[in-house]
Amino acid sequence: MSHKKAIFVISFLSVFGFIFNFNVCPTKAATAVELQVLIQQLQAQIQILQQQLAQLQGQEETWCHNFNVNLKIGDSGDEVAQLHTALQKNGVWNVIGFSNTNFDEETASYVVAFQEKYASEILTPWSLKHGTGYVGKTTLAKLNQLYACRERSITLTSPNGGEKWTVGETHNITWEAEGIGSVNLYLEIPGDCVNDEFDNPICYPGTSYDIATSVSASSGSYSWTIPSRGISTGDSSVVKVEDADSDTFDVSDDYFSILPSSTYYFNGLDLEVKSMENQLASIAAFLSQLLNEIRELMDR
Hints:
The protein is of the alpha+beta class. Helices cover 39% and strands 22% of the residues. The chain has helices at 3-22, 32-61, 78-90, 105-117, 119-122, 137-147, 273-299, and strands at 153-158, 164-166, 170-178, 182-189, 192-195, 201-204, 207-216, 221-225, 234-243, 249-251, 256-259.
């Protein structure tokens, strides 16, 4: 495990332990102020963790190659160098950064390890039990499944039109992405035009609010607690998700609504504790999902 990965895991576990030591569903003895402070702390930590995860995954995903050439002992050239990189990234060749352009017996031994690691996909179709060291049709297919360069695409799946979200609630913004390392998220409210008393159009520009930046695209989800300040409520909102490194993006297919919070009290009474408990439960669920991503990253 790299030094950066180790630091990231320690950071995550400290946050994960913090929320469960507090208990996901605190008793009513916890005041609204205490809960709100906890929520704000967790949200800040989640954003930091998501950025760190995006950086780690970005490092893992920046390299890609389309394998289309059969390779064997005695071959040389860039295709062999790319094969070395793939074998190292896969973990069957436990050396990082070493590469040359020669396909020798050492390379063949690591190809055998790769083939036997995915024997059901590479060897079984040929009724083989052991790897051959020859990079042919099924070995190329598995290499491309894992490391081929893919066209960038992204599709926002929620909110996608018609949802009614309330200030203070926590909801998941979700998307599907291909060939993208990290994404930025925005809330956008389109501009509007009205006619004045002389029937002349008066147009107001739209507004855009930053929700999050550098979120791991592969996570497919971001847990967003709608802030009580800084955004406009109404029934004409859309979310935009864009590739952090290109102009590829998608927006909600139709408007969704952001409603003002209607449950609050004055004179020192607690804010709606139940709503805050729900937020903590959503955060806990999101952290569990983040933990699964970390485990997958550590296994690479």
